[in-house]
Each structure stands twice: as structure tokens, then as C-alpha cells.
Amino acid sequence: MSLATEILFFFGGILAGVINTLAGNGSALTVSLLLFGGMDGATANASNRIGVIAQTVTGIFSIKKTSRRNYLFLKGKNLILPTFLGSLSGGILGSQISPNVMEWSLAIVMTAMLFTLFWGEKRWIGSSESVRGLSPFKSALYFFMIGFYGGYVQMGIGVLMLSVLVLADKWSLRDANVIKLLMAAILAIPAGVIYIFNDLIIWRPSLILAFGSILGAWFGARYIIRIPKAQRYVRWLLIFVVSAGALQAIYKAVL
Fold first, then answer.
1. What is the DSSP string of the chain?
2. pTM for this prediction
3. What is the per-residue pLDDT across 229-241, written as a single tens digit (0 to 9) for each?
4. Per the structure, how many domains does the chain have?
5. pLDDT at 133 over 60
6. What is the domain range of residue 201?
7. Of 35, 45, 157, 243, which sits with the fewest C-beta atoms within 10 Å of its C-beta?
């Protein structure tokens, strides 16, 4: 890997961290970079997990310790096991399929993400309700399925979690983000271990992306999030990046 590519990965990681802070879907950028860097779909999907683990674990430790945070973590504990098991199952599947199948999977997911980006920003407004909208069984089932999807393909996982927590389970967006961060870490770790165990990760670009992502997440939360219309610019950047990544995945799949 050339020095220019390493520099591109580092700054791409920073940008992905900023994107995750503002809008989510930063994995669309990092997976696209890994594909353009010459990796096949399976290796790119696996190598992306190191940055995801680094970001989510850093995010948990960066949350200010309050009684509300402790309450939300306590409420989220019932989702830990189904999320973990789903991620483990999805990771096992993702580690065993061929690169060609994974490239088609990435192309399909990226194309689907384009439709959500063109729908525009959705604002979810409201306070957390005292009575949950989902039964414990339904919550566990949803998060097992989310965990399975995230173990297989990471992209868009934050949006799926927030959709369930806010729209179905009646949490406020602010509270849901705290629970989502915990579940994202629970999801990232078992799948990451599976991909490491199967020797699918190329470490040098993965660590460069991870370091950049941590810096980007910190910088985004501290500064970029205050810029007016920042999310609009990020949305159009994602449309460009996801379009290019989908075309690259399709190109690799048909060769």
C-alpha cells in the first residue's frame, strides 16, 4: 500500500467519523475506500469492523456519567443477548460466503441506502414515553435481526436501531442514541472477533482507518456538529460516495 493510499485512508477515516457523528452511515465511506484500495468485498467488509469497534467503544467511554445514562444502559441490558447472538450468527455467515456474494450484497445494500438518502432528512421529535411501545419479546426479536444484519453487513445499522427505538419503542431520539451506542458496541465486537478468527482482516489499512475514525468522531462532536447546514453537505457527500461504492462493488462482482 502506497503512502498516498495510507494518507487517503487516514483522512477518509476522519471524514467517516464526522459523518457518523452528524448523520450515520460512515461505513459506506470506509467500505468504499477499502474497495477502491483493491480489497475484495469480503475482505473490505471484514476490515471495516476494526474502525467500527474503535469508534463505538470510544463513544461509550465519552458519554458523561449521569443517572440518566445509567438508567438507559440498564434499560438496554435486555437487548444485549439477542444483539450479541444475532451479530455472532451474521458474522459467521459473512465470514464463510464467497467474495463475489459479498460484493453483490454490498452493492444491494449501498443501492438501498441511496433511496433513503434521497428521501431527505427525517426529524423525529418527541420525549420518551413512560410505557414502551414494544413487548420485551418483540424488542429482543428486532434486535436479534438487526444484530444478524450488522454482523453480516455493517452499513446503515445505526439508522435501523434508531428506527426501532424511536418509532416503535417510543424512546426520544436523544435517549435512543445512548441505547444505540451501547448496542452498536455489543454488535461490533462478536462479528469483529469472527472476522479476525477467520483471518479476513488486512490490518494496516484497518488500523489507519480506525485511528482516523476516532479523531473524526471526536472532532465532529466537538466542532462540526455546530456548523449550520453541515448535515445537508454530509448527505450530498454520502450520495456521491455511496454511488461510487455501489458501482465499484458491482464492477468487482461481475468480473
1. --HHHHHHHHHHHHHHHHHHHHTS-HHHHHHHHHHHTT--HHHHHHHHHHHHHHHHHHHHHHS---HHHHHHHHHHGGGHHHHHHHHHHHHHHHHHS-HHHHHHHHHHHHHHHHHHHHT-------PPPSS-SS-HHHHHHHHHHHHHHHHH--TTHHHHHHIIIIIIT---HHHHHHHHHHHHHHHHHHHHHHHHHTT---HHHHHHHHHHHHHHHHHHHHTGGGSTTHHHHHHHHHHHHHHHHHHHHHHHHH-
2. 0.81
3. 666 676 677 677 7
4. 1
5. yes
6. 3-254
7. 243
